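Subject: for your reference before the review

Hello V.,

The reviewers asked for a structural picture of the protein, and I figured it would be easier to keep everything in one thread rather than splitting it across files. Below is the amino acid sequence we used in the manuscript, unchanged from the supplementary table.
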Amino acid sequence: MSDPLPRAADLLARRLYEAGCRHAFGMPGGEVLTLVDALDKAGIAFHLAKHENAAGFMAEGVHHRDGAPAILLATLGPGAMNGVNVVANALQDRVPMIVLTGCVDADEALTYTHQVMDHAQVFRPITKGSFRLTAEGADIIADKAVSLAMQPRPGPVHIDVPIGVADTPVRETRRRRLTSAAPVAPGGTCLETARRWVAEARRPLAVIGLDVLADNSKCVLQAFLEHFEIPFVTTYKAKGILPEDHRLCLGGAGLSPLADSHLLPLVKAADLILCLGYDPIEMRPGWREVWDPENQRVIDISAVVNDHYMHQAGINIVADTGATLEAIAKGTPGHATWPAGEPQAARAALARAFPEDEVWGPAAIIAEARAALPAGTLATADSGAHRILLSQMWRCDEPRGLIQSSGLCTMGCALPMAIGLKLAAPDRPVISFTGDAGFLMVAGELSTAAEMGGNPIFLVFVDASLSLIELKQRGRQLPNRGVDFGHHDFAAIGRAFGGHGHTVRSRAELRAALEAAQAADRFTVIAAEIARGDYDGRI
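And here is what came back from the structure prediction:
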């Protein structure tokens, strides 16, 4: 007896497995049951979350460990709409994601309206592309989706899967795969000018971004910066591209006004600025047009053409970062830079601006957590005032050692991303840092953490306020409205969902809670209570 023909859904699932995907997340409905079955048969485990938005962030957490596209699965109508935020986040944070939604068949949709809507119209503006699966084209559509999601700059791709199509048996034909393009480097006068500018620079500064993570140019980048003695800042998503205790590293930039007050003067003083895979979608307005290419030499090496107008450059190179740096460095001698020592002075000033010896408060919590947790700890940051401080103080010794929503700045992302990280890296310590408001948005996912097992740590900054917004409100001398809420027992919430829970109000209590959490058999919620106004002057 011959094996039954595969279904269209099976061909889609097999291509995702081929791309390295081993986990999918979502909330199923009847319209996607065949997809869930196909994923499982292909070797891709489906994990039930409690909300599609959180499911997408769990999928992103896995992606940051295994490098494969994240998979979000949602049923039609309200299920698909629940995932809109995380899909938009994936586009702005350059996360390759395959968004699978179920839909009714075309003939059915002609006379049936319940939950029927045009998913493609919704997802098209927030994805790199949207496809509708067909039975005969299932394998090609799957390959196009994976390829598009992973191409520079990476992002989400949507596939709408009609119920009948998913179940349709398909006779397999010869597989066709888009092949990876070889890294491209510049040549000609553009390359010669770049070499001359690098050779002549005495005060060079590099700004490093997400493209370097996507094209795996870390080793070449490090050799280039060290050869030419170029100090550098990173975007927050690129933190750890080189260990942050590296002598040339000046930390993250673009979000903290306090940090930027020490970094932007270096930008102004530089005689050469190198934008290395720099994607300015993470940067705030303070970094818009901060250099003038008419008066400063600027080399921009990026994966795509500059159409953001956040900055301009004298030399624009659209190419692979590593291949381009190798071409520039070839035959170009290195030399000492910054003879007056301005980068070292800025680094010392940053250390004073973000001290680690505070008795208590958000900075003390971050410093204590960094000291108590071992090297190799993976961290996630939610949006809010704590994220600005954390991103300056949390030292990363590897890429993606701290992940966060940087482009869209979505609240409620850190807890589910930590769940995904722990699933993909069960032997690594994992901690999320969340404000109390962001935690309340996704508290139900503690049940998912309990079901998945492992012992991630969920640390909550508790001050019963939207601290960053309240700070902005006071800054505009507006009355306090809509930013404060009730004080809740977050440790008890953790225990109610089957985990451990601790409330801490001192460094000693926090240290004890972190030590217990590392040895725990399941997740731990640590509620770190701080006073309102503790972020004043700190971010």
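For the response letter, the relevant points are probably these. The first strand starts at residue 23 and ends at 27. DSSP finds 23 helices and 18 strands in the chain.

Happy to draft the paragraph if you're swamped.

O.
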